[in-house]
Amino acid sequence: MKDETRVNHPPAIELPGDNYPLNLPIFQNVKWETETVLEGERIARGERPGFFYSRLSNPSVRQLELMLAQLQRRDECMVTASGVNAVAQTLIGLTRAGDHVVFFTEGYGPTRQIIRGMLARFGVTHSMLSIDDLEGLERTLTARKTRLVWFESPTNPINKIADIEAITRLARAHGALTAIDNTAAGFHQHGEFDIDLFVHSLTKFTTGAGDVMGGAVIARRELIGQLRSDFRLFGAHLDALSASIMVRGLKTYFVRYRQQSSSAQAVAEFLEHHPACTRVRYPGLASQPKAELARRQMREFGSVICFDLVAGYEAGRKFTESLQLFARTPSFGSTESLAMPPQMMQPKDFSPEDLALSGIGPGTVRLSIGLEDIEDLKADLSQALEKAGQ
Ligand SMILES: *Cc1c(COP(=O)(O)O)cnc(C)c1O
């Protein structure tokens, strides 16, 4: 064999059958071979276990999928290249022209843009309601045959709590599927409810490091099977290295989520008593309108706090620019604390009525609490609130 040939056929490394690495190796690999063409065909058709091509399936990615399905208490999971992609794939994969989708004003902006823009272009209609309006939901489901009810809890950005039992019961009674974007609540909450599909951004709590992007859809086998046939053709698969980094990240997920929740609770209580702040929204605060519902549905309340600066829009700029320990940036769930000023919070696609319903005001700021020392965070917030004025 000449060297030119040899470098294209490197030596195989045999792993003894009784000797295992603790971490699954990163399968940085696109193609798999089989001894016979027939077996390759059977794998590609899904008739036997095995791998064929990494756009369809990859062992590193598969390990992450199985881990997430177990955490969320469902049979199957499909991971994607971003959270937004998981949202889009689910909405596109489950609807067709003539279908009707219900979603809520308080939710994540890009999801709204997919439903109102992309789905509408393909003939899927929608109704947008407030997440608090259960009567409106019942009226809408009675009046219009609905394919899917899409909701969040807590909602991003303003942390409203959805009545999951009521929403899923109404949807079920009217033959609609339910999908929850569970990104803020994490992978370990809400699994006991009668929800058909869980959608996540893996970019937030999976590693907490803000180093990789991804998304996931978690549901019963039949629904994921239905989504996968489209997904293979869209090609927005997660790569093996990102999946491995996420598997590693999940090993510290519970420690991070719980610590961040407990620090966020302390910061929310601090802000609630500060004269420069109003409408502090954190599901763990006893003063919240849905505090009892939140406590029934969740064990931990996450890292996100939303509040309004009494002094308004410009004070929000000054406040976030005065913070030393909070990065001025979107996203949440990372180990460092983050702050979104009002300038980054204003939805551009809302009528004044929708904006009022959304709960986002001119002085609304969103914080995500990280793993820093809680006294350091409070001191930083104190000095920045003072600089922002009242
Ligand atoms: C961040 C986020 C997404 C989108 O996730 P990306 O990974 O940024 O694409 C979707 N839904 C919610 C609720 C989010 O917070």
Describe the overall structure.
This protein is of the alpha/beta class. The chain folds into 2 domains: 214 residues, 3-Layer(aba) Sandwich (Aspartate Aminotransferase, domain 2); 136 residues, Aspartate Aminotransferase, domain 1. It is 39% helix and 14% strand. The protein contains 14 helices and 12 strands. The strands form 2 sheets. The protein has a 7-stranded mixed sheet, with helices on both faces. The protein starts with a helix and ends with a helix. It binds pyridoxal-5'-phosphate. The site of pyridoxal-5'-phosphate has 14 residues, from helix 4.
| Relative helix content | 25-40%
The parts where pLDDT drops under 50 for at least 5 residues are none
Largest β sheet strand count, sense and barrel closure: 7 strands, mixed
Q: Number of helical runs?
A: 14
Radius of gyration over alpha carbons?
23 Å
| CATH architecture group name of the largest domain | 3-Layer(aba) Sandwich
CATH superfamily of the largest domain: Type I PLP-dependent aspartate aminotransferase-like (Major domain)
| Structural domain count | 2
Can you identify the CATH class of the largest domain? Alpha Beta
SSE arrangement, N to C: HHHEHEHEHEHEEEHHHEHEHEEHEH
Outline: globular
Strand order of the largest sheet: 1-7-6-5-4-2-3
